[in-house]
Amino acid sequence: MIKNFLQELRTQRWDDHRYYHHSRINQSLHFVSAVSFLFAYVMLLIDPVVSALVGWLVSMTTRQAGHFFFEPKGYDHVNEASHEHKEEIKVGYNLQRKVVLMSIWALSPLVLALDPTLFGLFEPWTSFTDFTRQVAKIWLAVGIGGLLFRTVHLFFIRDVETGLVWMTKIITDPFNDFKLYRKAPLALIKGELIDPGLENHVKHA
């Protein structure tokens, strides 16, 4: 059972890398995201508010900017797959789902601005610092909620193991991305825009 779980985890990680991380800019942004996420993990034990602010304002924005603005959207000749096909088979959040998630994140402070108590959950904020800390708490809930929602969703549209593997992948991605993309910034500085080794990796996988 553990062997199958780990094999599925490797498969999901490999598919994510080969389908969605061709761009060296995207890889470099994922490295930045990984470093900041690791910091956010530490801060989660010290000050969850700071963790949420770093996680969303730095980690998630750099991570998703790489996918939205720099990753090629045309036909993937390396994997012989169209962008539409990759979006359809994506286990986790594809670009359409990410738009929904990021929209919820971006618009959530408006709820607090309209109702400072957030339906009675908070004490009314009286300063910008109070407002920021309460927004961070909402963002922490959005992050956890987004993770749990897709995990449970996968229970029904795939199976329980796929959902649990995906959740494990997302939680451990900062560690894996740090190791996988640590050399990407240097390659980018040398003028390498697309990972040239990916095609050979796919052919020999």
Give a quick summary of the entry:
The protein is mainly alpha-helical and 205 residues long. The chain has helices at 2-20, 24-46, 48-70, 83-89, 95-114, 128-157, 160-181, 184-189, 198-204. Helix 2 crosses helix 7 (160-181).
Number of strands: 0
Globally, the shape reads globular
Oligomer: single chain
Helix content: over 70%
Radius of gyration based on Cα positions: 18 Å
Description:
This protein is mainly alpha-helical. Helices cover 77% and strands 0% of the residues. Helix 2 runs antiparallel to helix 3, helix 3 packs across helix 6 and helix 5 runs antiparallel to helix 6. The longest helix is centred in the last third of the chain and has 30 residues, at 128-157. The radius of gyration is 18 Å and the shape is globular. The two termini are 23 Å apart. The mean pLDDT is 94.
